[in-house]
Design a protein that fits this description.
single chain, 240 residues, alpha+beta, two-stranded antiparallel sheet, 20% helix, globular
């Protein structure tokens, strides 16, 4: 009987030892620490674990592109004296109200060449106003450009009608026209319409403006009219 009791006690003690060992390994704090260490080594960082796949982080402030520099807009002015209605600097008015047609020339500087003889028995019927090549030629009054014409004698010429249609002003031997000038343009008194030259039959050594005034007939043809001496008109000796 005693032997049986001893055997049973031994079995119970052994069973307790086995149970204690199993429960100790399961709750071992060191085992838990090792497990947590291994889990955290393979886990994603907290700030990226749940981030969307297409998220784009903003660029740092110092790498942001600089604004593109743009050149200031520049406005190009029209050449002085060529804008409609703006008299050229140096325009000189005569006593009759007409502007002397060459910039900077005064009525006192004019010479009466109206009755001068020309070849083939012709009479000049105009004023020659001497000036350096390229000096601006001015419209003597308000009006309109009736005709820009290139002729053998006059070279580059302009026929301008005044508003009433009674008179035509004729400018000849021009070096060139003012930029943009064309038939039908309205012009104002003192406006640049061309530049002194020596085209046509004028001498290259003596650039000048050939200026004439014509009284128009009923047909208002630019190529015909009765010549009027411009000298007394521009010097104030007679009205137009």
């Amino acid at each position: 009987m005693r032997l049986v009791l001893v055997f049973l006690v031994g079995v119970l003690v052994g069973a307790n030892l086995v149970y204690f060992t199993l429960t100790r390994d399961r709750a071992d704090p060191e085992a838990v620490v090792v497990f947590e260490r291994e889990r955290t080594q393979h886990a994603l960082p907290a700030d990226t674990a749940d981030a969307p796949a297409n998220r784009v982080d903003p660029a740092p402030a110092d790498t942001a592109p600089e604004p593109r520099a743009t050149a200031p807009r520049q406005n190009t002015p029209a050449p002085a004296g060529t804008r409609r209605g703006v008299p050229a600097p140096g325009a000189v008015a005569s006593p009759s109200g007409l502007v002397v047609p060459v910039q900077g020339v005064t009525p006192a500087e004019l010479s009466n060449t109206f009755d001068d003889a020309r070849g083939q028995g012709r009479v000049h019927e105009a004023l020659d106003i001497m000036a350096p090549r390229g000096t601006p030629v001015l419209a003597v009054a308000d009006g309109a450009i009736e005709k820009l014409f290139a002729s053998e004698r006059g070279g580059l010429t302009i026929y301008q009608f005044e508003p009433t249609g009674r008179h035509a002003y004729y400018y000849a031997h021009l070096d060139r026209y003012a930029q943009g000038l064309s038939d039908g343009n309205e012009v104002k008194r003192g406006q640049v319409i061309g530049y002194v030259g020596s085209t046509g039959n004028a001498s290259d050594d003596a650039p000048h403006l050939h200026f004439a005034i014509f009284e128009l007939g009923p047909e208002k043809n630019w190529w015909e009219g009765t010549a009027i001496n411009p000298y007394p008109v521009l010097t104030g000796a007679r009205p137009l």
